[in-house]
Amino acid sequence: MRGLSLRRPASLDDFEGRALAGGTDLVTLIRDGLVEAGTVSDVRALLPRGLDGTRIGAGTTLADLERSDEVAEALREACRLAASPQLRNMGTIGGNLLQATRCWYWRLDYPCFLHGGDRCHAREGEHREHAIFGNELCASAHPSDPAAALLALGATIETDRRSFPLGELYRLPTEDDRNVTALESSELILHVEYERPEASTYLKAMDRARFSFPLVGVAAARYGGEVRLALSGVAPIPWALGSATELDEATPLPGTAYKLELARVLVRRALERVGA
Amino acid sequence: MVEEDALDPWQAGPLETVGRPAERVDARARARGEVQYTADVQLPGMLHAAVLRSPHARARLVAINLDAARSLPGVRGVIGPGDLEPLTAEPNYHGQPVAAVAADSFREARDALAALAPQWERLEPLLDPEEAVRRGSLIGEARRYSRGDVSRGLAEADVVVEAEYRTQSVLHNALETHQSVCVWEDARLTVYTSTQFIWGVRDDVAEAFGLPKDDVRVVCRYVGGGFGAKNEAGDYTLIAAELARRTGLPVRCALTRREENLDSGNRNPTIQRLAVGSRADGRLIALRGEYVCALGWDGWLPSVAGPMKMLYACDSVETVEYGAKLNTSPMAAFRAPGFVEGVFGLECLLDELAVRLELDPLELRRRNYADSDPLDDRPFSGKNLAECYRRAEPHWARRDEVRSRSEEPWKRGVGLASQIWYGGGGPPSYAWVRVGSDGHAVVVTAMQDIGTGTRTAMAQIAAEELGLPLEHIRVELGDSARGPYAVESGGSSTVSSMGPAVRAAAADAARQILEIASQRYDLEERVLSLRNGQVMSADGGSWPLEEVTGLLEDAQILGRGARGPNPTGMRVLTFGIQVAEVAVDVETGEVKVERIAAVHDVGRIINPLNAGSQVEGGIIQGLGHTLSEQRLLDPRSGEVLTQTLDAYRVPTAADVPEIVVELLDVPDEHLTNLGSKGLGEPPIIPTAAAVVNAIRDATGADVRSLPVTREELLAALKEARARALAPQAG
Which CATH number does B270-424+569-725 carry? Predict the structure, then answer.
């Protein structure tokens, strides 16, 4: 952390280094040496905040979303079940989408695949909280509840330079590129816009009643006769599920087989909830 | 000196102050942040230590550059292997201390650790406790116990149940991490530390530095939690003392949360292979237990077989306990060490037997009630477990109604488990009571209050004996240089050890006050008493206490008290029962504990308000043990993965069920001038078994391993379904 400088730019044009909004993940990552940052720009006051129908300012906190009646149920519930009230008061939706995995090997800075190493320590190690999809090279699980909800809600991301579907924000890490997000250097998320569903829900299994990352989270949103499904906690990135039968394509590890059972039950319940 | 046993026992039930709810005397100051924890101690020129810890479970240090750290800005002292006993070049667990740096700031100290550039040769760790037992890697001898003829008992039994239970490692995670500030003045050392045992720290540190014991002064005003892991000086204290000695400045060594979860003690995992044989009517005729405790690199073997040996009347019992020595961090006492784990195994086994016998689990326990100590037939000083069972009946009787509220996918059920533990305390412990001319009293003793409300309980006892309002009592504790020896705050022994000494000291002071009053009012001492801040005479006369104490001017009344012995030839134990109600989502394995009723017999209750808090705290910590807490290691390297509180999951407020506390409040007539036993540990003991038995009641699933994670419960539910579908065998 030596030499870290915190800037408060007057406008987003002056922004440099890493963007700090709620700081609920970034501060711990910098503290633990997992993110190298010489300069951090506090953009909290500069980010758009609040709701305009289905368009959400990136600086809107999870607490704002959880309390709003006009937010789609899946997103509201995902925010309500995330973290703790204190963290939801600070954490922003933009930052939440970009949060890093809770994989203990990654957080403890093991030279794992995601950190650029040659193997995933979790696959052969302790992995009860890890992935059942997309886990061949890296078995980490994406921890964001709202990301799964927004994925099911067909969200679009607007940055300071382009807009694209939320699904394209995420990418599985590859030999050539270990990043799990596709933002360019110093690109900032400014808005998230979703499509209002006829019905939506978010169901979450966790290790205690509150304040836990998802073992499995399932978001479902119904648009006419079509239901979109997305899962949290099951892959290195939020995982869109074409249909319930795609669960048959899961590749659970010995210690994550139970997650597939959980996913089957929660997907079935979510589909029932949205009236599929 | 007035010995406690010279005093008449108080009558049972609430008295003037004792037995009545009292807000903690320090509650407001603590809530306002005004009290000084060790974490708050700031001394002029104080340095901060950071500790280099082994990143491997077993390794040999090939190279280290202590000099590189010495030249860095702010660094004042660096020590490594060979400089201090706990620092090692051949660490045997992840997190074992290797070197330490003292610097002007913690950041400079921590940054200097990187400059040490240690190089390691990694060695193969021993992690499997069963393998350790096979290889003879044990701490101490295997502990064997036998009475009767277990083989014959099991052969002759109408029903035999055998099962293997496992419990995990859980971490204390007190809010205040382990820490000390050490400062030398001449050749004498003062240690500010977060501890459960001031005098134990004094002795440990004096021995380590070759000092006369009283050249070490230990100060501990307030503690942010102990739970058993703060009974000794600890490496961090010795590191701070050595760096302070070398630099001539005060040094703080405070564990970070990660260090706390690496190397500050833990509840050791257990493997329990148990068998029970009974008659068709439920009478136990044989119990057998083989216990493997995964102790880590150091520690001691807790009495995990204790409950099997002591809880029920059973003629034939055979147990063996192994303490496996492994390349994991040393265990430490953790709130009823051994009995939490042993009661879990035994009380689940009993319920599995009850299912086989188709017998009510409460009735099964009643049929095996031990009227005297099963170990040696000694009488109990006081055992009211039967009364606890009776008081539990209304809670137990709720089970039909609870079950009937089951609705897919939530199945509901009720389970119970008995509690057994020590808690009688013992000598030595001393207290002084000082009364000045203003008629206020000060209790002085060098004990510690680890957050359990000790100050308040001691003030209540002194107030009762002196007939003073609680506000007129101060309790000065937490400093070995300013009070007499007192027991450690562990083993549920604080109130039972210290309380009688405080009462004796207060009685000694009261006697002296009455002596003066007798002269002042020309009345016989035997007709005088102290009550409501007054001196009262038998014929109805009363005078304000200050009128008597005012005669003292600068003189003081000094009362002294000591804890007497426990009753000879008797077993002093605590007992109880908890009844848990759960709801289980049989599709997802989610468990909601909805209600726990706790009925405990711990003798006289000094402060019902505080006692209720202890029971609630014990149950909540027990629920963490049951459902969500586990230290996870990398299975190959033995490195600790759950170092932070997002990965290591203590219960949240949302996990806390309705808790109903019932304390019998019956003084143990054979035990001390108070008849009080300890309550710190009893409430955590039966919680896990009660919850797991409730899960069985709700679903038919036999959970035999803690914590009850989703994967554990889903597997047990699957097995129960398969069993239900299978053709009935035999």
Answer: 3.30.365.10
